UniProtKB/TrEMBL annotation:
It comes from the Bacteria. InterPro entries: EmrE-like, Small_drug/metabolite_transptr, Small_multidrug_res. The keyword Metal-binding does not apply. This is Guanidinium exporter. The keyword Membrane applies. It is a multi-pass membrane protein. Keywords: Cell membrane, Membrane, Transmembrane, Transmembrane helix, Transport. It holds the Pfam family Multi_Drug_Res. Gene3D superfamilies: 1.10.3730.20. It is found in: Cell membrane. It comes from Acinetobacter chengduensis.
């Protein structure tokens, strides 16, 4: 159950990162509110998962899901650049996440 909660926390991190981008420096009220709500939810779920999972594992996976998910959202929705080096870097993060999961 802790792993499911951790993945959900990571998905919420992607949501708040994207809504923070849309808030344009917290100048737009609705995206700012969405950011704040999902930051709180993400941290609450991360904290809950840390009751069972080791700190290093939980935090690494949470931040990795957020980083790679935000990278994908940036490419698909925001039209950010997708070159070979950036894709390889994201794949390396995913590889690290898999190794972290296998180590626990």
């Amino acid at each position: 159950m802790a792993w499911i909660i951790l993945v959900l926390a990571g998905i919420f991190e992607i949501i708040w990162a994207y809504s923070m981008k849309l808030s344009e420096g917290f100048t737009k009220p609705i995206p700012t509110l969405i950011t704040l709500i999902f930051v709180i939810l993400s941290f609450m779920l991360l904290s809950y998962s840390m009751r069972v999972l080791p700190l290093g594992t939980a935090y690494s996976i949470w931040s990795g899901i957020g980083a790679v998910g935000s990278f994908v959202i940036g490419i698909i929705i925001l039209g950010e650049q997708a070159n070979l080096i950036r894709i390889v870097a994201a794949l390396m993060i995913v590889g690290g996440l898999l190794l972290m999961k296998l180590s626990t």
